[in-house]
Backbone:
């Protein structure tokens, strides 16, 4: 295992092109994207549907390979990795948060949080350790009392908090959030953004796709995409700070 | 993920669809039960055949005159039997036999009709029908035409009950005979009830029960016991040429038939053979259908759980993890079917045996074989769906609804 460098950008992509062979005209979902994300940064990617932001997320998440271009995660060339190495990358270096939460309906909150540990090849945790770590992760998102609830017994905001706990369980240095508040009301959205900001302060780099400007406003840096290209990339001068209920609850219990 | 955890995972999703899982395994259940039943029935048939071979008399050669031709006399005569005993090498005994019309047997008030056979002294040893109490008649009884009788076990029971039959005088037809022995119980072999017949010296049968002069000296059968299984073929060959010469016929078109105990039970064997072949086909087809059923349901399961597969892949499941999960589900399904099949097959075989419908012997290795077949089916027919699951595009899978 290569040691993970602690300096340099966490994400570096150069000339990313993604072409889909659908229909008669090939679709260029990504058309030469070059950018970097530094360690511990909170970046929002905005754009209309079809702008290429989801394609970019799929490549960054190692779920898809670009047609052209290079992607280095923590200085490692992701394009050179085989399927098992990509799985290990998703398992330990990246955490995913989805718009539709994507919790497994048959498993309770704790079992859902445990899943990434089960697939961990290195430093495999025993059952007892998994349980205690899952409990700790659920407590950190304020769900210590709902560990045995199934997803359908939880509200949308609670489900997304379980998903965040799951994404963080293997301590990744990068969190990819694809419209994390897309299915949530404004109060729950505020709560989730608060959690993400707290994680970001603790050093986790976050790349978040959203089309809602007030959600993007919570990021340090905002990238706009159109037709598979980056059209603007600016630091967010007016970063919003979310008042997370969860944080308040946690601070109250400490 | 450890192997045990994968099993737990697979089991969890199977019991979620209990009825579907059970119906899926039905083909495997029937197939495995058929394998076990088939082997139990053939083992039972083999045991029964072995018993019959022993019951007929080991190393037995049966020579019969051509029967079944109306108006013709039996071709074998007593002198043929003597000539065989004198000339054929490699035999340890000979018994000549003739039957007569069933006779009424009577002692006191008890009387009934009974098959009657004239025999020579070699009968108990050659046919492996031992005497229970008393003795069988001797050559001297034969030569002096002594009016003696040996009873079958059941005849003695029916006639005398608790009284000892030995030295009692009874009426056989119009002839008064003395009981000198009772045969040990033997039961029925090849449709002959050995316990329900009586034996008298062959000479007495000729004198008292076969009044027609034409059938004097004629025999129904001659039994020859070879010294060992190795001398059987030689003894048969010698007997055949000797009789052909004596009857002035060609060896290729004899007026007699020579059979061994194997020949006699061959028809029964052929019947069980047919049954076994049929069951083997049922087993093979059921296992194939069962395998296809498992493949079908696994493909449905992969489609149903496409999103779950996408989620698992996105959080770090390797292709091998996904493949193993679905393969194990298929194997557990088929092994579960195998287990129920074993229980069904074993209890079915046991029931057949207990109710007397069919003799069965449960073969222990058939259980192992059936289990191995079930596991193999799970692997073979589970591989394709599992591979399909492992090679799903995670992005497509996550989008799947």
Residues:
């Amino acid at each position: 295992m290569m040691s993970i460098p602690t300096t340099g950008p966490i994400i570096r992509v150069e000339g990313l092109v993604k072409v889909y062979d659908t229909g008669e005209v090939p679709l260029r979902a990504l058309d030469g994207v070059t950018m970097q994300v530094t360690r511990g940064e909170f970046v929002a990617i905005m754009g209309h549907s079809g702008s290429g932001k989801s394609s970019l997320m799929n490549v960054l998440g190692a779920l898809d390979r670009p047609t052209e271009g290079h992607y280095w995660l923590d200085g490692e060339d992701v394009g050179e990795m085989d399927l098992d190495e990509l799985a290990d990358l998703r398992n330990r270096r990246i955490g995913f948060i989805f718009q539709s939460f994507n919790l497994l309906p048959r498993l309770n909150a704790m079992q859902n949080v445990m899943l990434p540990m089960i697939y961990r090849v290195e430093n495999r945790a025993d059952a007892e350790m998994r349980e205690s770590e899952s409990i700790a992760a659920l407590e950190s998102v304020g769900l210590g009392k709902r560990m045995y609830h199934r997803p359908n017994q939880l509200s949308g905001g609670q489900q997304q908090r379980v998903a965040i706990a799951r994404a963080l369980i293997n301590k990744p240095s990068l969190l990819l959030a694809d419209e994390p508040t897309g299915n949530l009301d404004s109060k729950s959205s505020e709560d989730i953004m608060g959690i993400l900001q707290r994680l970001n302060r603790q050093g986790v780099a976050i790349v978040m796709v959203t089309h809602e400007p007030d959600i993007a406003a919570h990021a340090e840096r905002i990238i706009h995409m159109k037709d598979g290209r980056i059209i603007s990339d600016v630091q967010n001068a007016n970063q919003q700070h979310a008042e997370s209920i969860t944080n308040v609850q946690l601070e109250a219990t400490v | 993920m450890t192997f045990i955890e994968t099993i737990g995972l697979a089991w969890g999703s199977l019991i979620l669809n209990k009825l579907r899982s059970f119906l899926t395994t039905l083909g495997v259940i029937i197939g495995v039960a058929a394998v076990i039943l088939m082997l139990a029935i053939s083992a039972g048939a083999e045991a029964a055949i072995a018993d019959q071979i022993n019951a007929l008399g080991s190393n037995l050669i049966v020579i019969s005159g051509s029967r079944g031709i109306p108006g013709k006399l039996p071709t074998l005569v007593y002198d043929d039997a003597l000539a065989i005993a004198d000339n054929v090498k490699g035999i340890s005994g000979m018994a000549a036999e003739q039957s007569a019309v069933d006779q009424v047997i009577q002692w006191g008030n008890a009387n009934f009709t009974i098959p009657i056979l004239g025999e020579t002294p070699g009968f108990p040893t050659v046919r492996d029908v031992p005497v229970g109490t008393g003795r069988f008649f001797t050559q001297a009884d034969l030569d002096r035409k002594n009016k003696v009788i040996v009873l079958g076990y059941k005849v003695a029971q029916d006639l005398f009950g608790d009284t000892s039959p030995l030295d009692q005088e009874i009426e056989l037809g119009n002839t008064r005979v003395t009981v000198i022995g009772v045969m040990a119980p033997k039961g029925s072999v090849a449709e002959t009830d050995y316990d329900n017949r009586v034996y008298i010296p062959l000479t007495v049968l000729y004198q008292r029960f076969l009044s027609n002069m034409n059938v004097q000296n004629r025999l129904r059968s001659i039994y020859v016991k070879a010294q060992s299984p190795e001398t059987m073929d030689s003894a048969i060959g010698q007997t055949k040429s000797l009789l052909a010469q004596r009857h002035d016929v060609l060896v290729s078109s004899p007026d007699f038939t020579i059979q061994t105990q194997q020949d006699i039970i061959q028809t029964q064997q052929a019947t069980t053979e047919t049954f076994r072949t049929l069951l083997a086909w049922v087993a093979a087809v059921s296992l194939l259908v069962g395998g296809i059923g498992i493949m079908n349901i696994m493909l449905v399961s992969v489609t149903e759980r496409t999103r779950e597969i996408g989620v698992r892949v996105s959080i770090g499941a390797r292709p091998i993890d996904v493949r193993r999960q679905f393969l194990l589900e298929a194997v557990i399904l088929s092994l579960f079917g195998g287990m129920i099949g074993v229980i069904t097959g074993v209890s079915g075989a046991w029931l057949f045996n207990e109710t007397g419908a069919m003799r069965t012997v449960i073969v222990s290795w058939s259980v192992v074989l059936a289990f191995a077949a079930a596991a193999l089916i799970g692997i073979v027919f589970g591989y394709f769906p599992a591979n399909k699951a492992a090679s799903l595009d995670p992005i497509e899978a996550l989008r799947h609804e």
